[in-house]
Design goal:
Nonspecific Lipid-transfer Protein, Chain A
Length: 264
């Protein structure tokens, strides 16, 4: 499933609007409830998303040619401010910061969308808008699920976001995947998803990466796209979080894949 910049930004808008609408309905008790992210409350997840949006907004301004006066402790300063907020302020702050980032992306002209480049610390070279905003979409989709699952153990990620986010998380599989979890084996899998229906290759050898669909895979993994996104993001634990329809065939188990993608 090939997704471009406009697809990513439209998905970010939908995800922001959906989560913001939910946040406005949360009360004091809801914000202090444990989330799907280990050891984080719902408010702490919103703080993480809000601070990340502010950091991404600063990256956007620099990429547009603004002065880069962030300094080595810029991110830590933002995190410290958000950590000092009350849960209520973290929730309200998320809505504002996420809105500002989405509107900043949407305000870019077609030429700016095509030409802009971002320097992100974990990429050797500058990346385009689809990559930078796509990683924010992945964060928004996964952490929205962390909040949803606090209230519904069978929560899923909306299909219209999941397919795009799966494409985008592929840019960091080499960073987040742990190939040692398969004990030195080299495995080439075919990943088949529904909602949306796609096929892609997954290679686990010295690293982890998406690849073209193999003609003769070592095994076939089939599941909804939203479940694949949660697997890759370390959120497909056993029990109610793993939906019916997940099948694994070949020399690898679902638990081994959970080990490869333990979260980040």
């Amino acid at each position: 499933m090939a997704t471009g910049t406009d697809d990513v930004l439209a998905a970010m808008r939908r995800s922001h609007d959906r989560l913001s609408a939910r946040v406005r309905l949360l009360d004091e008790e809801d914000l202090r409830r444990p989330s799907g992210a280990a050891q984080w409350t719902v408010a702490r997840v919103l703080s993480h998303l809000g601070s990340g949006s502010q950091i991404a907004q600063a990256n956007l301004q620099v990429a547009l040619g603004g002065a880069d006066d962030r300094g080595p402790d810029f991110n830590q300063g933002i995190w410290a401010r958000w950590d000092a907020m009350t849960p209520e302020d973290q929730a309200a702050g998320f809505v504002r910061a996420s809105r500002d980032l989405v509107e900043g992306y949407e305000a870019l002209t077609p030429q700016e969308r095509a030409d802009i480049r971002f320097r992100l610390g974990f990429f050797a070279e500058p990346v385009d808008l689809a990559t930078s905003a796509g990683l924010r979409l992945v964060e928004l989709a996964l952490h929205s699920w962390d909040i949803d699952v606090a209230f519904d153990s069978a929560a899923t990620i909306p299909a219209d976001l999941a397919g795009i986010a799966v494409d985008r998380i592929g840019t960091i599989l080499g960073r987040i995947g742990k190939p040692e979890a398969v004990a030195g084996r080299s495995v080439r899998l075919r990943l088949d998803t529904v909602a949306p229906q796609t096929s892609r290759g997954l290679v686990i050898d010295g690293t982890v990466r998406f690849d073209t669909v193999p003609d003769e895979p070592d095994g076939v993994v089939a599941m909804p796209a939203e479940a694949l996104l949660r697997l890759l993001g370390g959120r497909l634990s056993a029990g109610p979080h793993t939906p019916a329809g997940v099948t694994i065939g070949g020399p690898i188990t679902l638990d081994e894949l959970r080990g490869v993608f333990g979260g980040y």
